[in-house]
Design a protein that fits this description.
The protein has 670 residues and is mainly α. It folds into 4 domains: 140 residues, Roll (Diaminopimelate Epimerase, Chain A, domain 1), CATH 3.10.310.50; 110 residues; 97 residues, no CATH class; 174 residues, no CATH class. The protein contains 20 helices and 5 strands. A 5-stranded mixed beta sheet has the order 1-2-3-4-5, sandwiched between helices. The protein is globular, with a radius of gyration of 30 Å.
Length: 670
């Protein structure tokens, strides 16, 4: 019997399939409503006994787990999907993700949704419950049975996946193997659920309180630190973009408090990234050291978020977009016209670069023109929507602020994307122009090293010979690959030149060696600055899909650049090492960011059937680009019904502040 239960659990897991995407129903419209009772039967499908059955199941769920299930029967979802209708009902009724769940059924549309917080039941268990219990009852017209099944499933915290038929003795050995596999999968699932529960609890802790963080497990603290740096980095980036527009509109004097807030947030966030870099390097830490470092990350990021949150209300009053909306929409329209005029020249520039240089050299900008078109299309949609809302009477302009802000953010990202193409063209052509001089410069170093080695009296001869050979190899690479990847060749050349010049400086006190060191520094600094700027623009315009690892590498590259500039006059050799280190870290950040973006594109393509940056709908591109629509200056740690909600989900705010969320579930046709 034990083996049969284990095999049954395995087969239940293996039989879970993807829910079909719901179509939009058309029936007697009934919008989401304020619920006053646990069971609302506006469709009139429950008789007295059915109502008693459902009410009893709901009471049983509440008595067992203190979870409130709200059951609603209507004729139609007003042309919305069941998931979207239920999400709006949750918002209207101020549902809590760890206490409330909703089953909404449109009896004429034959559509439904069952949504509950992941703290109540995981997404996978909710999918089992909907597919195996709720939906079959709805298909048979058993309205009371569907609600009872939902309440029972939530009470048991696990949807049934069906039973196991009898098996013959010939497959007994296979059953044993399946049982072992089931135990392994069960153990993994249990650990995953425990970690998910710990992380959910961690998000409810005050992140600025080290004493509260001390009670968390190391895994939960690590998950919280990764989540918070991404959320707050998005909030800082978005707030910085919002502030730039405000400074242009109101001047530096009126926006000084907000500039101070953003600067303070950036400083605190940089501290968090510096500590994450220590955690991500190859040097292991003891558990206590790791806990201390993780606590520092979370506290620093929370401090950055508090800097923004403290100015939220004042900033909202300063930029009253409802009052200034007509003028602002005119300005945005002109900006869109100007940016649209830049699309074709940028495309021509990019096409010309592709004929000259390799894909590696253009990796950070290859999709910028197409992505800029998507941002402009999204901006146009929101400008049109904003004008339609402005024409409405006061009190009927809901969504106007969101439309203006979404258009502003989209246009800002489109401008950054097109500027990046122009900057890349300038930087690459500058590298092409500088290659001959750099080759000549390093050749002088190679000749000087050869002279020193030929004398037979040079110290550290082996090290100098190795550096000379590496420099010669860099020259050969630049001569062969300089036309296809000039920036890469330029960076490799300057690194080899810096190493050779460092050795020559240690061996000889000649003044011209010091001059070459200065030139090597300028070259190394230029290469590093170009790469750091390129990666920063890439992350800024794909912020919705880039994780903490790439951001941490980029933050460390910026720190190395600052160290290089600070050491230029006192220790040029060390300054060059910092500049080269910044270039290496920026390259790592680009690679990690590319991987995150590709993974996000595959995820959204699979989930929504849409495209990524280079194609598909503007909404998906806006999501991946981090254009987060919502309230001004909302703190990243304040929560709300955001994140991923089953089959459609609402996206969290994206202004001078941040966001969060913790709902799961979905629905579909029956």
């Amino acid at each position: 019997m034990w083996a049969a239960r284990v095999i049954g659990m395995l087969l239940a897991i293996l039989t879970v399939g993807a829910l079909l995407s719901p179509s939009l129903p058309m029936a007697n419209a009934e919008p989401p409503l304020r619920l006053t009772a646990a069971v609302t039967d506006n469709a009139g499908v429950l008789d007295a006994s059915g109502l008693a059955e459902v009410t009893g199941a709901i009471d049983g769920l509440y008595n067992a787990r203190r979870v409130r299930l709200w059951v609603v029967y209507v004729d139609s979802f007003s042309g919305q999907t069941g998931t979207t209708w239920a999400q709006e009902a949750m918002r209207i009724n101020d549902f809590q993700s760890d206490q409330d769940a909703i089953l909404a059924v449109a009896t004429q549309d034959r559509d439904y949704a069952l949504l509950a917080g992941t703290a109540i039941m995981s997404n996978s268990d909710q999918a089992n419950l909907r597919r195996n219990e709720v939906e079959p009852a709805l298909r048979q017209g058993d309205w009371a049975g569907a609600a009872t099944a939902a309440a029972t499933g939530l009470k048991n915290e696990n949807a049934s996946g069906g039973g196991l038929s009898g098996v013959g003795t010939l497959i007994f050995l296979a059953m044993i193997a399946l049982a072992v596999l089931a135990l392994v999968m069960w153990g993994r699932r249990r650990r995953r659920k425990r970690r998910e529960a710990e992380f959910a609890a961690a998000k409810r802790v005050d992140p600025a309180d080290p004493n509260a963080l001390a009670a968390l497990s190391l895994d939960a603290l690590d998950d919280l630190s990764k989540s918070i740096v991404v959320e707050v980095d998005n909030a800082v980036r978005t707030s910085d973009n919002e502030l730039t527009l405000a400074v242009e509109e109101f001047g530096e004097r009126d926006t000084a408090p907000f500039v101070h807030a953003v600067t303070g947030a950036k400083t605190a966030l940089t501290q968090a990234f510096n500590v994450r870099q220590i955690l991500d390097d190859t040097v292991p830490e003891t558990p206590q050291q790791r806990r201390d470092l993780l606590t520092r990350v979370v506290v620093a990021a929370a401090r950055a978020d508090d800097e923004l949150e403290a100015q939220r209300e004042a900033f909202g009053k300063l930029r009253d977009l409802v009052i200034n909306a007509p003028d602002r929409l005119d300005t945005l329209t002109q900006q869109m016209v100007d940016l649209t005029a830049r699309i074709e020249p940028a495309a021509q520039t990019l096409a010309a670069l592709h004929t000259q240089f390799s894909e590696t050299a253009l990796a950070s900008i290859s999709g910028n023109v197409d992505t800029a078109k998507q941002r402009l299309s999204f901006a146009d949609q929101n400008i049109s929507q904003g004008r339609a809302l402005v024409a409405k009477p006061a009190g009927s302009q809901g969504g106007l602020v969101d439309a203006v802000r979404a258009a502003e953010s989209s246009l800002g990202q489109a401008r950054t994307l097109l500027d990046a193409v122009d900057s890349a063209s300038t930087d690459i052509n500058r590298a092409v122009a500088a290659l001959p001089a750099a080759i000549a410069d390093i050749q002088n170093g190679i000749d000087a090293a050869g002279t020193q080695l030929a004398s037979g009296k040079v110290p550290r001869a082996t090290e100098l010979a190795t550096a000379r050979d590496a420099a010669a190899a860099a020259v050969a690479h630049a001569q062969s690959a300089g036309t296809s990847d000039p920036l890469g060749a330029f960076t490799q050349l300057t690194q080899a030149d810096a190493q050779l010049d460092r050795l020559l400086a240690a061996i000889s006190d000649e003044l011209d060696t010091a001059a070459r060191l200065n030139r090597a520094f300028d070259q190394a600094l230029f290469g590093a600055q170009s790469q750091v700027r390129s990666v920063s623009d890439f992350i800024d315009t794909r912020r919705g899909s880039v994780g903490p690892e790439a951001r941490t590498r980029l933050a460390e590259a910026v720190r190395q650049l600052e160290a290089a500039q600070a050491l230029k006059t006192t220790n040029t050799s060390e300054a060059i090492q910092h500049a080269n280190g910044a270039a290496m870290l920026a390259a790592q950040a680009q690679s990690m960011a590319n991987a995150d973006v590709n993974a996000a594109q595959r995820q959204y393509t699979g989930r929504y059937g849409g495209g990524g940056f280079g194609g598909g709908g503007g909404n998906t591109g806006a999501i991946l680009g981090g254009i987060l629509i919502g309230n001004l200056l909302s703190g990243a740690l304040r929560g709300g019904i955001g994140g991923s909600v089953g089959g459609g989900g609402g996206w969290s705010p994206g202004s001078f502040g941040g966001s969060g969320g913790d709902w799961g579930g979905g629905g579909g046709r029956f």
